[in-house]
Prior knowledge:
Helices cover 9% and strands 24% of the residues. The chain has 5 helices and 39 strands. Helix 4 (71-91) links the parallel strand 2 (59-64) and strand 3. The longest helix is centred in the first third of the chain and has 21 residues, at 71-91. It is a single-pass membrane protein.
Amino acid sequence: MHQVDLPFDVLLQIFLHLDPFKIAKYRRVCRSFNTVLTNPPFSNVIGLAQIGHTYDGVHVYCFVTPETSSKAFLTMVQKLVQDAHESEYDAGSFKKYPVESVQVLEINPLKTINEVSLFEFLKGHILSGPLPRALGSMTKLSNDVNLKGNYVTGPLPSELGNLVHLKKLNLSGALLDGTIPDSFGNLVNLEVLDLCSAKLTGSIPASFGNLINLAQLYLDKNKLSGTVPDVFGGMVKLQTLIISNNDFEGRIPQSLGQCLQLTTLHCDGNRFSGSLPASILRLPLLQSANVGNNLIISEILPPCSASGDHDASLDLTSPNAASNPLKQGQAFFHLSELHLSHNQLSGRFPNYITSMTNLRHLCLHENYLNDSLPNEIGELSNLWTLNLGNNQISGTIPDSISGLVALNKLDLSCNLFVGGIPDSIVSLVNLSTLLLQHNKLSGPLQKEIGSLTSLSVLDLSHNCFCGEIPESMGNLGNLRTLNLSYNQFTGEIPPGIFNLSDLTTLQLNNNRLVGPLHAGFSRLKSMRTLDVSHNQLTGSVAKCVLSRRLQKLILNDNQLSGPLPQRGASGWVWM
């Protein structure tokens, strides 16, 4: 039977199974075509063939196809969408959207201008609902499909692999489920693929090896698992690969060592095992490599390329590293960041690190380093951050630390340092955080500490400092946290402390302080926590007017008397 003679009901069944985005191509199938299109239930199929709903705070939009000039058709679809919205609202689909109206935007995905216009239109809206397979019909899309942060749900349609001209695809932050389709390997012109934080499961398809133009790949913060396929050898343009915080296992692919343009490699927060391929850290442009918090067992750090003047960083942070990756002679002189925290590194501080003069951030905390700090530490004049906390480093803090003139944060806490704070510390004029708590430091606190006027956090607690708290503390006008607890300080609380108007936390407890609770505390308008317990303070507390912001006041184990001090606000805790 010739198609033009097909009964209406037969034609209807045929058209009901067609992709509504491609229905226009069947325009000349038969004379009854328009009749079929404009009669229920096929008109309903068209009306509800939606890209999704977008919400801009007032309206919900529904995209329909094919494009039509019939106002009656759009009116009909408007009614269908409105009815769908009203019926779904009670069911919860739109419960979070206080919408005033539902509107219809007509598109024709067969025309490039409208395909592009669709995604331009989406920039000011939030898209909700599943990604329809019909998106795969927009084969002329060639630039940027950016649905970042939308409420897109459901699986990734395999039909997206038809968008072979696409250069950028961003679905980060979506509420997807299911796996990455193998068909994504067809996107051979793709330069940026961002699927981070999209709740994806499964593994990375081996077909990703076809993405020879890919420069940036973001798959972090998903639920991906399995081994990562060793298919990166052909990705000669790859610059950024971030697959952190998934559940990958096995070895880090050797073929990554062939990605000569690679600058950023983040594989942290997985279950990678074995050793780190030496070829990766020999990549000539590598700037940041983070393989922390895995099951990496590395006897040495493979040497990086000695050539090049670019900066780089290395992070092998891992609570499960079985041996010390720091061995003499394996220096990374070009690195700007070295992160080896949360390992089982032991032995003395490696001397060769002091030759890495480009270092800006050095983090070796939470290890088992011992012995003393070398004097050469002062040669790292570009350091912004030095974090050696929670080790077993002993000896004195070297005077040469004065060479760290760019230092912003110094953390030597929870070690075995002895002696005092060197006078040379006054050279660290940019220092904002100084953490020396839980050591064996002793002796009087020198007045030079007051020269560090950039300090916002100073913690000297749990040491053996003695003598009076220097009046020069009052010069630290940017100080927000001061903790001198659990020492052997004597004398009165110096009046200079009451000049620290930004101070929010003051802990002077467990010392040998004497004298009254000064009325000067009323000048500390930002104070939220005040602990002067376990001292020998005397007199009445009633004269002390405290900050309206004070939340915690601890006065116990002193020789204070009288009623509670006046308080500007209720709700603080008195202990």
